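Researcher: I'd like a structural prediction for the single chain below. Treat it as a standalone chain; there are no partners to consider.
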Amino acid sequence: MQPRISMVTLGVRDLERSIKFYKEGLGFPQMESSPAVAFFTLNGSWLGLYGRESLAEDASVSSEGSGYNEFALAHNVASATEVDQIIGQAVSAGATLSKAAQKTSWGGYSGYFKDPDGHLWEIAHNPFFWVGPEDEEA
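Model: Treating it as a single chain, here is the predicted structure.
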C-alpha cells in the first residue's frame, strides 16, 4: 500500500447544510455528483460528504455516537495571520470555535473549530517546516 489518503468522507446529518458550509462558507470547489453525496477537490485529495446514516450503512457499522470523533482534520497555512483569517471565515460560515488560535507548546500557532456536524478541524502554522503539498497559488 502506498502512503497516501485519497479522500476523507465525513458522515453528515444535513447534507445540504454541510455543502453550503464547505462550498459557500469555506470556498471549497465542488465537483458534480449525485444528489446523495458531495465531493470537493482539495490540493491533492478529495473531501466527500455523505449522509451519516448512509455512510454507516455502507461501512456496516452503527450510526450511533456523539462527541469527540477521535480524530481532527488539519489544514496548515503559511502564517499565524492566515490561521486567524481562516478560523474567522469558518465561524462566520457557521462553525463553532473549539479553541481560539494561540501560540502552541511546539512553537507554532493553531486553533480549532467544529463544522456543523461537529467534525474537528485544526488550522495551524508551523514555522519550522511546511506540512502539506506545495501551494498552487504561490
